[in-house]
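Customer escalation, tier 2.

The customer says the design service returned an amino acid string that "doesn't look like it belongs to this structure." They asked us to rerun it and document both sides in this ticket. The original structure tokens are below, unchanged.
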């Protein structure tokens, strides 16, 4: 039986390098019988966490009604979650960071979020892969806190312009990541 995999995409480029790796991952995952649901945080309206700790008290994951409330059920129902993002200023883009921050609502609402397999797909303009440490390290700590099982990371340096990832093995690495779920 296949798994339900939520991909949270943090790139605003509809056909950019991150999107191409997500597509390769999704196609390989679906070929294995998994269901992939993609949520593009960069093209959604997700505000920052207000730390009000009123999560789920209004019946919604977040009291401040935004697009996080539409994806929150997918987080809970997913067997696995993949975060995909370009590197912005040595960290996660703000839009996906807001979605990650609002995962706090699951802790406050005492929702069963632990035990999921997770992975990270990221790329950056610079050639030094250490540039993505600002995504990789927080990802590791978030996974540890939420008791998620990290199954892999695809970190592709040296891609800036749309399609640059096609000159690397990034898409094949993303497709191979599907084997780990």
């Amino acid at each position: 039986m296949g798994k339900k995999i939520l991909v949270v995409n943090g790139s605003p480029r509809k056909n950019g390098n991150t999107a191409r790796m997500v597509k390769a991952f999704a196609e390989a995952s679906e070929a294995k019988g998994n269901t992939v649901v993609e949520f593009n945080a960069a093209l959604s309206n997700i505000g920052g966490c207000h730390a009000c700790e009123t999560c789920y008290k209004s019946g919604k994951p977040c009291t401040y009604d935004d697009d996080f409330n539409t994806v929150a059920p997918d987080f809970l129902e997913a067997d696995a979650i993949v975060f995909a993002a370009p590197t912005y200023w040595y960290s996660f883009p703000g839009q996906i960071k807001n979605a990650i921050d609002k995962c706090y609502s699951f802790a406050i609402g005492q929702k069963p979020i632990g035990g999921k397999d997770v992975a990270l797909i990221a790329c950056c303009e610079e050639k030094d892969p250490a540039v993505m440490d600002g995504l990789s390290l927080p990802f590791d700590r978030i996974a540890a806190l939420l008791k998620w099982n990290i199954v892999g990371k695809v970190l592709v340096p040296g891609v800036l312009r749309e399609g640059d990832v096609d000159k690397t093995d990034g898409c094949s690495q993303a497709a191979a990541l599907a084997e780990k779920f």
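Tier 2 assessment: The sequence is consistent with the input. Strands lie at 4-9, 35-40, 80-86, 117-123, 149-156. The radius of gyration is 16 Å. Sent an explanation to the customer and offered a walkthrough call.
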